[in-house]
Design a protein that fits this description.
Beta-Lactamase; alpha+beta
Length: about 260
């Protein structure tokens, strides 16, 4: 096999067992500093290099110190993601359930705030500490869709032995960042994870689309709040001499006069 680059479509076209064996060999050879039979995807190779520089043990477990229940609830209440959970759930939770996967929503620090989906997979996820309050950054869990999406700032799919930590080789995941449309601040990560046998390359596009749908909803909510501020501020500014401007808490202009 020549040393061309692996891609998800090619992987999906292969027999599942063959694809798993190939990915494991690619990982083994790459981490050993040898030439693999086929080059890992650039996003995966870059993550593996970050993990090596961190000195992360590829044979470590995926345990995490969970957030206490009160801190978890505080983080849920404090994030704008709580306002679009219905959109995220309607868009992904049902699909995740029927496809034997789970939907996971984290905050901007990679802490799992919510998860829903197939009950059997939820129980399996407990075994790898993919549960509410757990940390899923690259620093804690190695290359994985949540952590690598956080590191790269874009949607990422990680399958089987593309995970740096061996304990995750039986899993597949696709994740996309969700940004605050008011200031483009990262709010968190939307992820779908499941057994490696549930892998499908289209899941990445689906997760990304639902993340964008949530951002669009937040954008409309913000536009409505600016309009309400304008309705209150405009009559006041009309009575102000000189120049004046009314902005919301994020610096968005609601009304001006004299400018």
């Amino acid at each position: 096999m020549n040393n061309t680059q692996l891609d998800m479509r090619r992987l999906a076209a292969m027999d599942a067992a063959q694809a798993t064996r190939l990915l494991r060999r690619v990982r083994e050879e790459t981490l050993a500093g040898r030439r693999p039979p086929i080059a890992p995807r650039p996003v995966i190779d870059a993550s593996w290099q970050r993990m090596a520089r961190l000195g992360l043990d590829p044979d470590q477990g995926t345990s995490s110190v969970l957030l206490q229940r009160d801190e978890l609830e505080q983080r849920r209440r404090g994030t704008l993601l709580s306002e679009v959970m219905r959109t995220l759930t309607n868009g992904l939770a049902g699909i995740a359930d029927t496809s034997l996967q789970i939907m996971v929503v984290t905050d901007e620090h990679g802490r799992v705030l919510w998860r829903q989906g197939n009950l059997s997979v939820l129980r399996k996820a407990n075994g790898i500490c993919l549960e509410e309050g757990a940390a899923w950054t690259e620093h804690t869990t190695g290359t994985n869709a949540v952590g690598t999406a956080l590191a790269m700032g874009r949607a990422v799919q990680v399958h089987s032995a593309e995970h740096y930590v061996q304990a995750l080789h039986n899993w597949t995941c696709a994740a996309a960042p969700v940004y605050d449309p008011r200031d483009r601040r990262l709010l968190g990560i939307l992820d779908v994870s499941g057994p490696a046998s549930t892998f499908h390359p289209a899941m990445l596009a689906l997760v990304g689309s639902v993340a964008q749908l949530a951002e669009a909803e937040m954008r409309e909510r913000h536009r409505g709040s600016v309009e309400r501020l304008r309705a209150v501020a405009a009559p006041i500014l009309c009575r102000v001499g000189g120049r004046a401007v009314a902005v919301d808490g994020h610096g968005w202009t609601a009304a001006v006069t004299g400018l």
